TrEMBL record:
Transmembrane segments: none annotated. Its cofactor is Ca(2+). The keyword Lyase does not apply. This is Cyclomaltodextrin glucanotransferase. Its EC number is 2.4.1.19. It comes from Alkalicoccobacillus plakortidis. Keywords: Calcium, Disulfide bond, Glycosyltransferase, Metal-binding, Signal, Transferase. Gene3D superfamilies: Glycosidases, Golgi alpha-mannosidase II, Immunoglobulins. Residues 1-29 form the signal peptide. The lineage of its organism: Bacteria, Bacillati, Bacillota, Bacilli, Bacillales. CDD domains: AmyAc_AmyMalt_CGTase_like, IPT_CGTD. GO terms for biological process: carbohydrate metabolic process.
Amino acid sequence: MNDLNDFLKTISLSFIFFLLLSLPTVAEADVTNKVNYSKDVIYQVVTDRFSDGNPGNNPSGAIFSQNCIDLHKYCGGDWQGIIDKINDGYLTDLGITALWISQPVENVYALHPSGYTSYHGYWARDYKKTNPYYGNFDDFDRLMSTAHSNGIKVIMDFTPNHSSPALETNPNYVENGAIYDNGTLLGNYSNDQQNLFHHNGGTDFSSYEDSIYRNLYDLADYDLNNTVMDQYLKESIKFWLDKGIDGIRVDAVKHMSEGWQTSLMSDIYSHKPVFTFGEWFLGSGEVDPQNHHFANESGMSLLDFQFGQTIRNVLKDRTSNWYDFNEMITSTEKEYNEVIDQVTFIDNHDMSRFSVGSSSNRQTDMALAVLLTSRGVPTIYYGTEQYITGGNDPENRKPLKTFDRSTNSYQIISKLASLRQTNSALGYGTTTERWLNEDIYIYERTFGNSIVLTAVNSSNSNQTITNLNTSLPQGNYTDELQQRLDGNTITVNANGAVNSFQLRANSVAVWQVSNPSTSPLIGQVGPMMGKAGNTITVSGEGFGDERGSVLFDSTSSEIISWSNTEISAKVPNVAGGYYDLSVVTAANIKSPTYKEFEILSGNQVSVRFGVNNATTSPGTNLYIVGNVSELGNWDADKAIGPMFNQVMYQYPTWYYDISVPAGKNLEYKYIKKDQNGNVVWQSGNNRTYTSPTTGTDTVMINW
């Protein structure tokens, strides 16, 4: 009898243990929303330079540098090193909830004639194999499972613009840009029988068109209008999505057509939607309307170089002041449709390190505090928390030699990363300037009744702050940084007026109240583009625990899941175009709208539209407009263009690569539009064309 009881007890305990293993942990639940990074803090890792967890997979020979003496060569960092720093708590204690890793695919093995190697991951050779110096697929799987079990999302870098260095005149240059499909050679640059690459020389960066259809430096540039290359790259990113990645950073988006990239994003969002952001480099002080257009129309967010360059100018180089920073915040809130989804930073692998020596550590701390309390998705470049210094590539990619958790920057990141998780104002809030001069910036982030007030004094003297008003409720507020940057307590009166106080020299203070809304408020929708039947996630507060409805304008969508802070729903089957979203609770309370979700007209393909003999006078450009939303729905103000006429074809032939619905009977015309907006329509009947069901195409007509 005792044996039977013991047996039954064992069976019961085993069953309970099985159930416990089957239930998702809190950490695992945190990574199920792969399209909303508003409350996350990303940590960017150059995999080869972070930590060498397995010396056994280090390369040998000329491409490896023992002790990383030569920063152009491999130094040994790998996925095991990242796993180790998750497991020992370095990344979790820092508050990191997303890791951006180097592109994980196989790269070229050859040494560049200038002594460079592919340690950075940007010289792809085979997108369906791993870089063996980072690890094998088992190692990658363990990285994913370790990250997920610790509540960390994994973002992969992705380079669909180019393969590797190549020269038209020298087939032995590096590996001749060769690209493989799981071990099978697709082609190389100087013997390009399938026309996989552009052969238009290197870009001089003189125009947007020039940068798209010519090589970036000596990198073999893909012809994305080639069906083989189009399909291969889209298959490849789906391969890594199936491996469990939670986000994608797309390299060099400025150097590929927006049309092809929109078709790529449609493929991703139909397969397994994840947060995706691109790299569109902007220099100091540079503002590019095409950058804003891309972020609003392509289906992906961008690295926010306007933010990064401005904060560097204010706190690192001291060439700008807080008026300039506030102007950037104000203007970008208008220019980006989803400004909270743009990815912010103070330094990265494409610019010099923020820290320039021990004397600048205070400026690094202050910049991190501003980064982590401002709008956008903040990214920490590995080692910034250890005050690594260095100029441009490769000096900004030194190995991380210390993992000190006591540095001020480490502690500041940890505290503010935690605050981003608990106070929705930091993830979703709008920004209001509350007090401003050249040296002082006090700004408030507000979402519903949750508020974060941040004050920065970048001068070398204490400043008395008077006549400050805030939305914070009446009371006393202590600095959330616990005076790590010499912040102080403030007193707020019933009318929102703050008693005068001293803001110390080179200080930052953060005060907050978290009061989640009980009425529905949408904080973020991801993705903001998709076709009928795609899944989107609506995040926010006050949705209630009982199912209500999600409206696209007035059309209800199918609800997949519903909670007080997160809803999954399907895009309804309505005509392509832009729709405002709202949430209606079970109690029939309607949220404010979330503007301009783009519903696509179906699966997307990239098509090159071209027209011959379209002569124009100076200042006049050519556009295309047609019968679907992707072609502007016959609205000349929404016509696609201006078209190109210099590289792939030359004036008076014009061309443009556009994402259009697959297998669709399209009608369209070209129009000429001058600088004053005057329009001349192409004469005759509408032109007709049936788009392919897959792949790419080119359609040329005469004006």
